[in-house]
Inverse folding.
């Protein structure tokens, strides 16, 4: 058994931790993927981000659908994509996300490539430092 010599105290350790506030929040995990071939390996990840609200996720899908080059789509796919972005598709996706269910959309380009957008609700830990008053 080890004992400390009489009168010897361990050096003081300064705490460098900050007071953090922890919260478990619901966020929306957004992924944009691209399937090159139905028999190819896993899809290529184009973009991913955590969003705070279902409306932000649906807005991002709509934006990316609208910025897809129209010459890459057949007229039928252009019509289907715009119908989703401006109509029932976005409303149904928003409702699903509010219910805690995943949502998504995909289109097929003329060359067979299939861009896909996926959003799913996730619970995540958020740590925030308190704001300190300026001295």
């Amino acid at each position: 058994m080890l004992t400390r010599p009489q009168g010897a105290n361990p050096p003081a350790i300064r705490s460098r931790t900050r007071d953090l506030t922890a919260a478990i929040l619901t966020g929306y995990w957004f992924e944009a993927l691209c399937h090159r071939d139905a028999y190819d390996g896993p899809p290529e990840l184009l973009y991913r981000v955590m969003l705070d609200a279902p409306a932000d996720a649906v807005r991002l899908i709509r934006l990316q659908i609208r910025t897809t080059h129209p010459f890459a789509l057949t007229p039928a796919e252009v019509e289907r994509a715009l119908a989703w972005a401006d109509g029932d598709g976005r409303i149904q996706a928003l409702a699903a996300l509010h219910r805690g269910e995943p949502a998504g959309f995909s289109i097929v380009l003329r060359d067979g490539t299939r861009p896909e957008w996926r959003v799913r609700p996730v619970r995540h830990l958020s740590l925030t430092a308190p704001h300190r008053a300026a001295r």
About this structure: The beta strands are 21-35, 44-51, 103-106, 114-128. The CA atoms of residues 30 and 119 lie 5 Å apart. The chain has a mean pLDDT of 84. The first helix runs from residue 54 to 66.
